[in-house]
């Protein structure tokens, strides 16, 4: 494929997509400074010196602290009373308005600060800091923006648009529509219109069927005929017509044998209600069809009220009404969201597109050139992992010989859940060691700058040109920030780029969140065509789980010509051309490599079928250095102070003023700024950030994480 005239390259290997997503908060970034108590911080700094403060000095400081705490509480109440703030909180967790935010407004700051009051104040501060300074992508308080690279200009150009939001859409959470679909599918009058489907990993050979790792079982001719018709597109009533009698007992028997699934499952999609409506409209039983449509209409009317709501009171009332309707229809209480505030966990959520758009010119593009070497180091990681997995897969194949993909997948389970994880961890340690040798960072440095000319040779030597990987491994998605005083400064070359994160082996712009908020999604598909001129084999992933998957972040740049393989469950439309079951795909050896052979004869590298698992193993492992007490900042990464306690936890100290004291065992290092980054995690690759300021009394026992005022997310890949 010929390179377009406007193709933007980084070095000789990488090509930038010509557009990028712009991420940023929906509230003014300087709003977070309202919570700062600089005078108190300066007073606390004096306690770092020897000798220790006297009792009188402590009393004076504690009095100053209490005075600052009252001022901070009054400020937090001003924030909590803002209609925009309450609306944003309502979208996150509407129950918190009545349970925490509004009770906090009724508290008098001069009264005793109980633990409950402190928790409410912390919550208000937490959300305010997030809304002001986190580069978020959610609702009106984190709208998705878009921009393009423009070689005609040197600087950056911002088109502000009209208002903050260009377009906002309210979506149903997939779990809610799934619950309604299950209930409708269990209705005896509607059940005959549900299409049973063969379990994807069940292999059928004439009149026998087999599960992975088990011997085939013989089926009588009647059952075998019904099983052959269970393809997910024929409703049970149609199967009955084709076999010349009621097939429901036979289908139930196939379900009992775990060969068939007979339930109404909606495809994974941002618009599950459309699939449910389309199914209902195919039901020939008029009364049953209308009963189902009435229930769906009820939920859609409720969503319309949520969409039309203005202000926190209307929004909370509309959400409560929708939950009430859902509880009645689904015959269950709506899911308790008290401990889950991520988007998509309620019955409905909102995503928005920012009115402003940005063009980045030649100065910025030139400044991105050093990414070439960083991207090369990342592909070393994916290539090395791919090599190890190929070796492990070959060892499995040596035992199984040619087999179906389902059986091979199950045989590889110990690799995917144990060996591959250990491989990725070991490679990450080697990755760190190589970067340490390249950078040779001094331990006590605050900011470190290295020239490209000095680093180019050592980087290429440490990370030699990699081999192949899997299809998504060609993509690297960096989050980049610009440090500049103005667009004019960018035009003069007076700016600096800082790499925030580098997402490995994934095109983050392919997530439904971004595709659905693009003004012209067809443009993203055109860019995908340029990267992949041939059809791809894409594993069909689970609908959602708490660790990684949800409808919002599900990869959505799937083209009609692409194949999707259902490994353990069908989450795509069974009627979609190109959807194949894993049991119908053969694993064979071709010219010293393993391939997946599809029913129509198409061949793909075997790793393609495992792409999602492999990407999950490495997507967040690009970090050039391991965590230390202090990692110097550079354009490659922000400075960090992990803040590991050297003594007792601050919650055990005798008073809150003493917990604020920088000399305490959880205090920031002397070189730390007034705010510092912190991420806590139950998993080394899934940080959960907490936000506050060292100079604020609002959350003085919390660790801190300021967020960047603006960032953009771009996509790179080797030329096709």
TrEMBL record:
Amino acid composition bias (Polar residues), ranges on this chain: 693-705
Low complexity compositional bias, start-end: 662-677
Domain Lantibiotic dehydratase N-terminal: 82-598
A Pfam match: Lant_dehydr_N
Region (Disordered) residue spans: 630-720
Name this polypeptide is given: Lantibiotic dehydratase N-terminal domain-containing protein
